[in-house]
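Retry 2 of 3 after timeout on previous attempt. Resubmitting structure tokens to design endpoint.
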């Protein structure tokens, strides 16, 4: 088996039943390093793309976590759960008999664009310094404030009428969602069901992309145990952020954390490369001056 502690990203196809922390723990054992982190959590029920960083690449993760994400999932209309997904206790079963596709499409349209979304109560959101799910499990009535999110696209690929084993008529929607960081797909399922008067929850979720990293570059944990595949730090930065190439003098200044004059640059983090394709830093432009976010020399 190949082992390396190279600084870089590892893109995992997370299996169901694993928390994001579980995956971090597995990768620490595979890479034989404690310096492992992840860019955005996935619920245990969910599968798909989870981006992890090794070594110095952990300093990229906070910025990668802010990038666009894409999901495929199944929303079940007609039943509500305490967690807004299939892992939680059922709290209501209104059924979804007679719900028409035109009403579904109208509801989906209202949940597309810039939204104020209330996260799921059983979530990792902190309320007064304590995770919301811990408060709910302790029996507290949690009030989570709405936060701004953007749903770039929300498409229903298929709809199927079913009857649950206990006789509740439900409507399963296979959906694809492209959204900003911080968007809860469980909350979209809950809110769509509430708008249609049926209740709703998520029964399946697979993250297919985080920023530029999709399932095509993701590896299962078993595959990583056989061969640890690491995307080098510079390649990872070039793939995820706009690029600015500088000369030796500028590279030295930026490597020391100095602020320098910049050309017009895109908003947000920019990856700076020096001669010989050396990754120097992540910066952002403040007017016509640089501001260092993280230095990697």
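Retry 2 succeeded. Sequence:
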């Amino acid at each position: 088996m190949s082992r390396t502690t190279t600084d870089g990203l590892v893109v995992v196809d997370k299996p169901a039943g694993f928390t994001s922390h579980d995956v971090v723990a597995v990768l620490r054992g595979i890479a034989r390093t404690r310096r492992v982190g992840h860019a955005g959590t996935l619920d245990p029920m969910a599968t798909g793309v989870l981006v992890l960083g090794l070594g110095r690449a952990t300093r990229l993760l906070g910025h990668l976590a802010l990038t666009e994400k894409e999901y495929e999932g199944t929303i079940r209309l007609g039943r509500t759960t305490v967690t807004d997904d299939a892992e939680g206790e059922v709290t209501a079963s209104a059924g979804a008999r007679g719900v028409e596709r035109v009403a579904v499409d109208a509801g989906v349209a209202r949940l597309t664009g810039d939204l104020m979304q209330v996260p799921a109560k059983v979530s990792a959101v902190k309320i007064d310094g304590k995770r919301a799910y811990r408060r709910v499990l302790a029996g507290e009535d949690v009030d989570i404030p709405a936060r701004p999110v953007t749903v770039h696209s929300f498409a229903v690929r298929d709809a199927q009428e079913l009857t649950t084993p206990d006789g509740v008529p439900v409507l399963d929607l296979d959906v694809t969602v492209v959204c900003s960081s911080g968007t809860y797909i469980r909350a979209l399922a809950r809110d769509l069901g509430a708008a249609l008067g049926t209740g709703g929850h998520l029964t399946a979720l697979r993250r297919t992309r985080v920023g530029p990293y999709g399932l095509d570059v993701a590896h299962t944990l078993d595959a990583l145990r056989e061969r640890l595949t690491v995307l080098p730090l510079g390649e990872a930065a070039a793939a995820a952020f706009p690029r600015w190439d500088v000369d030796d003098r500028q590279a030295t200044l930026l490597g020391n954390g100095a602020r320098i004059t910049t050309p017009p640059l895109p908003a947000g983090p920019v990856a700076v490369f020096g001669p010989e394709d050396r990754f120097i830093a992540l910066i952002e432009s403040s007017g016509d001056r640089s501001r260092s976010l993280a230095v990697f020399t």
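Attempt log closed. The mean pLDDT is 91.
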